[in-house]
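Task card 7
Instruction: Convert sequence to structure tokens.
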Amino acid sequence: MIIRRDVLKLAALSIGATASGALAQSTQPTPPATTAGSSTASSAPIPNFDAASIVDRARDLAKKPFVALDTDLPAPFAKLPYEKYVAIRPQPGSATWAGDNVGFALEPLHRGFLFSAPMEINVVENGKARRLGYDPSRFDFGGLQVPSTIPDIGFSGFRVLQPMGPDGFHEVAIFQGASFFRAIARGQNFGVTARALSIRTADPKGEEFPMVRAVWIERPTLANNALVLHALVDSESMTGAYRFTLRPGDITIIDTECTLFTRAIVDGVGLGTMAGMSFFGPANRRNRDDLREGVYETGGLQIHNTNGEWLWRPVSNRETLQISSFINNSPRGFGMLQRERRFAQFQDDDQHWELRPSLWIEPLSDWGEGNVVLVEIPSDAEINENIVCFWRPKAPLQANTEMALSYRQSWCWTPVERPPLAIVTETRQGKGASGKRRRFLVEFTGDIFADAKQVADLKPALSSSVGTIALLRTFVSQPNKTYRLLFELDPASENLSELRLALENNGKPVSETWLYRWTA
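Output:
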């Protein structure tokens, strides 16, 4: 399904275009492996495919100087403007495997606009790998005049499709742009974006963007409902071999195994990286004159600490760049969640922010010492994914070393792993009684609040790193199973305060811990 904001997000990440209509297996011949616009950095083809060979390629590539991808494109695709790029559509009947009843189809994406870098796409069938060759007959160019002599320029990425009824397909994932990819659960719209790898995000020295040079996608079977793809990732500082196992459904699972290799000392590596948008909402409207109630596809960061504590950190569109770090050695899980599923809280008939996926990361191996990092970036447009989070190893990765880890991504409505406690369902902030004072309302929801006796024993544990808390009041609704706290922060002359709140019964938590950074 195509929606307006998915098209607008081209400016930041990738395309979300229609994938409906009858499709059939492409029968175009496979051209040579090295062609115009492609890179030789992924070396020779793999006629007899072995997953271990991708790890060997990444290891060998890390021993060589970095070679940037060739982003040059011939006319008419060089400097292709946005309007003409989004007019390029796949032709009905051009998707790989669509007519083979294997449960999936692949739709290569054209190069151009911001997506000038090539991604080599290989399919693996019966143990043999073959490269998908570019053919202009795959595409409807929307009036763009394309010469018949156009060379093989490759592709910028691909969509993963699944059957939708007897006559069409729908998207379940998109891999396009640097190492970005997105997925959705059944019934959702595309939202938060993942990255295979991030380096120096929000670092004053500048961010490094690893790129997917090549992928090898194994032919699926209808019985498995799983698509396995391998990727070779490369950047100035390091390389990586990735194995993704995609299982779409009511919760779409992507199991990720990766082995990373460094060329030099690498500080600021981000693993399990994800990004989403928060433009305005009840916690921070930033003086927006907008008829909608809220514009955000992610409401907050949840962390399940190694010690078992559950944290909830609402996110918002800040006035200045904010970076928060949560010490969490080999976390049990973390992710950016959209908890608000009521249309009335957004009032947006086009974007339907309430249908955006939550993304939860569950490590499947020991990640060692490190921190979950949250980056909140000021934004003046809703097309910007201004909220980023990732896990960062405590120590820099040394040169000429390798690191292996695995994790599970759950693209979902609500993660399967969830707090066995009351959860935060709303955070509001507004002007306080006077001066710099700020008024907050935090709402918890849980079955415990339906029991008047248990509610009587509850005690809010509320603190601030600086300033003082005043005017604390509580409101309980047994029918709604909610417990609301209203309070004011008086920061005095300070411009930043870390707030912490949890509900306790006899010193034991009965809610997740709400964290919030207030800034002037």
